[in-house]
Amino acid sequence: MATDGATPNPDHGRPNELPEHLERDFDRRALVPRLLVLTILGAAAFLEYGHGHREGHWIVLLIYGLTTIALAMSSRVAAGHSWLPWAATITDAGLAVYVIADHLPRDAHDLLLATDAVSLFPAFLLLIQTGLRLRRDLVAMFTGIVALGWVISFALLVGSASLPAPKSPNALGSRQALAFISFAAAGGFVFYAVHRMRLVWSAILRARWDRMLLSRFLPEGVATEVVRGEEAAEIAERHACLMLIDIRGFSGLARSTPSRQIISDLLSFRRFVHGAVSRHNGIVDKYLGDGVLAVFLDGTPEQQAVRAFEAASEILRPLDTWKSHADAPSGIHVIATVHCGFVLAGVFDDGRRAEFTVLGPAMNALPRMERRSKEANLGVVVSKRFLRLLLPSIRARIHTRPVERRPEDGQLPDILSVRFHETDVDLETGTAP
């Protein structure tokens, strides 16, 4: 299995759908906190909190309410437009600045009024709401606009020399400085929280993206382990059962069959083999022309052998397979070669391509076994080492015949031809009788 080694960038392309995903319909869902702000401010206007004209409060609240509704409707019509979140954030910040400026104490007596809660409530609530977008730039802009508006409003108030009590500026300055520092600290905290949440979400999205890519080549469980960097992804020596499935007679068929039909037959064969291997916890490592290399790494050596054997049995069984259809190609049959041993297995990544595969002497012996099987016109061959791993109950289901060794078979493992007792499939030739 090989994939493009370029790691999906969390800041570009599909793995980073975080901002777009969160922005979609955000302003429609943000109606509740904004309506809550409007309710509180409406009550304050009704009680004549603040120093502006009562009609002015209602005009500002009406404008904000209409803007909120317009933004909520635009979130559906103009979804994905970059201006929408900026417009919403500027609107929220403008309201927060207006409320803060309107509730700044005008004299010493105002310092005793409980208007601070009303004036600061929109700023803090809308700051949190802006943070829910998980956009650092919007959080920074909202905090900056409110802070700048706050400072300008306070400077204009103090510069007007409208405070009659001499100590009022000091008392006012202390209270406003404390409130301002609290808001700035809250803005910094929300900004940091958004930064951390983006890192977490980016990691989650990257893992999902990688798992989606790998799941096309690996079973879901193995793909998850590879993404997590767990044992399946590490290059290590481990025991594996190896199975090579091939179509005998396919080359001759390709010379006399239209290319489109050949491709269709080959893809059908691959889908079927891939399904059978995956159902038995195996991994399709490579497609080799009209052949398929499968690896069984999960479990003990004995469990691997059972799974490889059952997968081979399912592939060679003509029931509910591509060979059972009326329009299936004729004159060909499927052969299998099965071996086992210790191999180096894991994700081999050179920085440009990543490949989950196996290497080692057992892997090198598999094509030699397959070549010897073709020379002897056999259907299924297994190594003696693999046969020893099978349970007695499984060995009772098959008949084995040793394949004669030749002088040139020095590096070839001892192999046996296999035939089932209990099915209609003749595993010695790979065809139905």
From TrEMBL:
Gene3D superfamilies: Nucleotide cyclase. Keywords: Membrane, Plasmid, Transmembrane, Transmembrane helix. Residues 11-20 have a biased composition (Basic and acidic residues). The keyword Zinc does not apply. Residues 241-370 form the Guanylate cyclase domain. One of its GO terms (molecular function) is adenylate cyclase activity. GO terms for biological process: cyclic nucleotide biosynthetic process; intracellular signal transduction. This is Guanylate cyclase domain-containing protein. It comes from Microvirga ossetica.
